[in-house]
């Protein structure tokens, strides 16, 4: 069970794990006015509360969490039957939309894939309007394409600096003194001096996850691989600065090179050699369910800033709910997602203590800011983090995430170039400047220009 949950957290919570499917034209049920093409894309709130909906999720922990909320939903909407189906969405969604057969009313989808399906989804601008001012800007931005909003934002995944508090205290390292990435480098040097053979900072060895983490760092600096119009903006001082930091970690022997939570990674976390992990909040899964020797020793704090006073967090991954136009009861599915995300009874049931996560869903925070109130925690202190109040740390970090842009459909394809070239840099075979120049040329020629 733990192995299954680990795979899910590594491959699902990170968001954007496969290329977004091509946008496909379609017509849908007569939910919105058909006066013009723009109006026909806008979902309207239903004037009925009876019917049957089919919603797709992936199997695993989050499926079980959402399954557990259906009874709460039916307490408010007893006339809506929810068929909650576990589906391999990556394998099935595109063909389902193409054929128009058995199209679900709602789908749980990685943020990175929303932009590739927008021609086939309802524009949710109208139904989200009452809540938009209170949704994290980054989540609205990644779901906005051509002025329409195509996903109901689910989680916010702020980047945090996880650290082995027990090991650092034994080495005399004061984590409170780490406010910038230069400070992190010095802390790593000091730890390595105290613990010879240690490689304190995690260096991601997966090309995909390494690129995702790169976007987290870039998010702190208010940038990303592509701008709001999908134009490539990789060869920039911001990305050079990030890669130079990573290359410095490599050159000085300050990094443990391993894939996220593979056996090697876990071993180096548990033996005290790897003590700093800059990652999304969903790393909290590791001390809760994976680490054996050091569970209870780990804590979380805000990421270092690139400059003093700069943003102390960036977004790393995320998912939303989308409503296909051909879903026969997509308007009723909106009521389900509205309940989950914007009704206190719904979001408290999602993130609060439950059967799947007895201490609460502490691998993310809500993207709806009234639900992510630091003063009103939805989950308790986390035992595996030494009883730390992760809720306060995460919500304060989430509030610092700059706005974002829609993830381009070619993002995952870019891993063949940027993600792999970053790994070549960590092998010592490329410089940061070479990574940026070569990746920009290859992505532009092989991906962007071929859209």
From TrEMBL:
The keyword Nucleotide-binding appears for this protein: no
InterPro entries in the cross-refs: Bact_solute-bd_prot1, SBP, TAT_signal
GO cellular component labels: cell envelope
Major site of localization recorded for this protein: other
Any one Pfam family match given in the protein's UniProt record, by short name: SBP_bac_1
Keywords for this protein: Signal, Sugar transport, Transport
Subcellular location: Cell envelope
Signal sequence bounds: 1-25
The keyword Transmembrane is annotated on this UniProt entry: no
Chain segments annotated as coiled-coil in the UniProt record: none
Superkingdom classification of source: Bacteria
Family stated for the protein in its record: Belongs to the bacterial solute-binding protein 1 family.
Protein name: Sugar transporter
Organism: Glycomyces algeriensis
